[in-house]
Amino acid sequence: MFICTFCKKSVPPRTGCKKVITKTVMFQHPHRPRVHKRWGVDKQGKPRIEWIDDKGGIGPQIVHEVPACPECSAEQEKKRIAREQTLSLIS
Ligand SMILES: [Zn+2]
Fold first, then answer.
1. CA Rg, the chain, in Å?
2. Ligand 1 centroid to 62 CA: how many Å?
3. What is the DSSP letter of 45?
4. Of 31, 30, 51, 28, which Cα lies nearest the Cα of 40?
5. CB under 8 Å, gap of 24 or more: what pairs does 13-16 form?
6. Structural domain contains residue 11
7. pLDDT for the residue numbered 84
8. Gap from CA of 67 to ligand 1 centroid (Å)
9. Are 14 and 69 in contact (CB under 8 A)?
10. Is residue 15 part of a domain?
């Protein structure tokens, strides 16, 4: 049970909690060498571990998110899609 941030109602037991993202920032993730493991094969055909790089790059990072009931999270998702479509029309 939890209280929805948007409608301020207590949600019945066994109802799923949806997290609604309220704030993000663009973040520069650094390049990290040899951090991901993947299986490969050597020249004799034996399996061996290969370590590959994480490229890093710029992407959104969640700063703040709040719990919401399924109805409010669906409504917020519709608003978010409409807001992104408006922004894409402007730019
Ligand atoms: Zn709600």
1. 21
2. 21
3. S
4. 51
5. 15/69, 15/70, 16/70
6. no
7. 87
8. 9
9. no
10. no
CA dist list (Å): 66 to 3, 4, 78, 86? 10, 8, 16, 24
Residues whose CB is less than 8 angstroms from the CB of residue 8 and which lie 6 or more positions away in sequence, other chains included: none
**What does the pLDDT average to over 76-91?**
88
How many residues make up the chain in this entry? Answer: 91
Determine the distance separating the centroid of ligand 1 and the alpha carbon of 1, expressed in angstroms: 12
The pTM score is 0.66
Give the domain range for residue 82. Answer: 21-90
Count the domains in the chain.
Answer: 1
Instruction: Give distance in angstroms: CA of 24 to centre of ligand 1.
Output: 21
Check residue 56 and give left, alpha or beta (phi > 0: left; psi -120 to 50: alpha). left
